[in-house]
Amino acid sequence: MANKNAGDNRTRTSVSIFIVAGLCCFFYLLGAWQRSGFGKGDSIALAVTKTAGENCDILPNLNFETRHAGEAGGTDESESEVEELKPCDPQYTDYTPCQDQKRAMTFPRENMNYRERHCPPQEEKLHCLIPAPKGYVTPFPWPKSRDYVPYANAPYKSLTVEKAIQNWVQYEGNVFRFPGGGTQFPQGADKYIDQLASVVPIENGTVRTALDTGCGVASWGAYLWKRNVIAMSFAPRDSHEAQVQFALERGVPAVIGVLGTIKMPYPSKAFDMAHCSRCLIPWGAADGVLMMEVDRVLRPGGYWVLSGPPINWKTNYKAWQRPKEDLQEEQRKIEEAAKLLCWEKISEKGETAIWRKRMDADSCRSAQENSAARICKADDPDNVWYNKMETCITPNNGNGEDESLKPFPERLYAVPPRIANGQVSGVSVEKYQEDNKKWKKHVSAYKKINKLLDTGRYRNIMDMNAGLGGFAAALHSPKFWVMNVMPTIAEKNTLGVIYERGLIGIYHDWCEAFSTYPRTYDLIHASGLFSLYKDKCEFEDILLEMDRILRPEGAVILRDEVDVLIKVKKIIGGMRWNFKLMDHEDGPLVPEKILVAVKQYWTLNSTTSSQ
């Protein structure tokens, strides 16, 4: 009898195991079937553009809802209602929190301090959605956007009058037209760049990254694009209303910024070329401290272009309506600082002078007799966020690594010198290559989710937590550009690596507002950002800032742990976004998920938003 019971038990155990295994297989196949797009999952049709005839479906009918909420400790969304975030007052349509004009005027004007970043304290932050102006429309696709901007998107005509002779911008009907002119190149940026190209190797990929200080409406950067050079342009928010806003509406990389007292938010040895065209920056002042800051971000072998006063002052002092003695002294100070920095003047033609930073600048300085050069003692020349400029020269710490930079586009996937030389702790050549493979896979998945990613629909793209630049590299196309943001609290500072790949980016702390106007990005991507800031600042503040800088009908892709995205999703539920939480491309069992969203179209005085 005992033997019979034992046999029955074994049989029941075998059957139980078989049933459990069968159920596991069934549910796994069911999940895979739903992932494949043939299951009757939730559907979401997200309008991406109001232009008639365009494909408006950003997502197919898929059920990508998370299956890990309980296991990962997600919150029960039924416990509390979603808080609806209201539109801000119309006066905030073009609000730039950290460059607010009223707040700026309370700071000293000396050394442009008042034009630097001055962010509101937590209790003064807005908790509402910035409205688009009435009549706002999706910007023209590139390259038409380079030359035309809809008037309704940035309705400011002052520059059309103030800069009329210089061909900056003209108002024509319901659009602004940008002829490509500038203060120093009224005949157009193309001809001006041709002149520079006779001295600077712009065409062969040697010069890829450029910095335009005091950029105006960024026509220099706009016309460099077709030569495969990407410019980071900046200008202050000042009396030249909306100059940076115009640049971004045109589809040109730009931020609000100024050379004042704080170091620029870029890593050392980042740019192949720096440029100032009548930028009104006092280069010779304060013992050349501003030129020393340019030297910090200029790569050995890089070029500095200065057009306008005081170059060729003997011929032009009357036209500039300035005393020749002042101009002569200004140029003397510039030449003196350039010599101290070991920049070699290689050209001076008309009102344009070009210097080249020597490859062996460190040895050059040590060889200078009676050199007044003071070398900076800071261990990390990339530690710049809110740090004051110093009257000292940043050493190259050169060991030949800069010579190994490949021309672009080969540079995009070549091993960056900072990694090859072991300067990024914890990132080996193998890890760098693995990261590239991972992001190619991720971007391939994104392109299946959003069919418009490759079409040019999105011109201005931001990666809020850029890492090694893998997202931007995998996405690379002449149709768009990516602003790679390096959070100041990131475990590894890899923005220098991103520049060595021929990409551009900036340091930023996402507990504060970004240095841009509202509605300046078409697509925002963030991987691991909310996990990074989980205990640092409010998710709502970060999401409201994303909404501020995202254009109506712009897209968002978030990649993060499921429990974090559950919290993010709850806040988004009160914003005017359509969204969907989706499984990782490797399947429902991976705890990392993807949240995709599209900002609804709504404007001032509209009572409802367009779905």
From TrEMBL:
Membrane-spanning segments: 12-33
GO CC terms in record: endosome; Golgi membrane; trans-Golgi network
Gene3D superfamilies: Vaccinia Virus protein VP39
Entry EC no(s): 2.1.1.-
Keywords, alphabetical: Glycoprotein, Golgi apparatus, Membrane, Methyltransferase, Signal-anchor, Transferase, Transmembrane, Transmembrane helix
Membrane topology: Single-pass type II membrane protein; Single-pass membrane protein
InterPro entries attached to this UniProt entry: Put_SAM_MeTrfase, SAM-dependent_MTases_sf
Keyword Repressor attributed: no
Enzyme class, spelled out: transferase
Pfam families xrefs: Methyltransf_29
MF annotations from Gene Ontology: methyltransferase activity
Family of the protein in this entry: Belongs to the methyltransferase superfamily.
The protein's name: Methyltransferase
Gene: LOC104213645
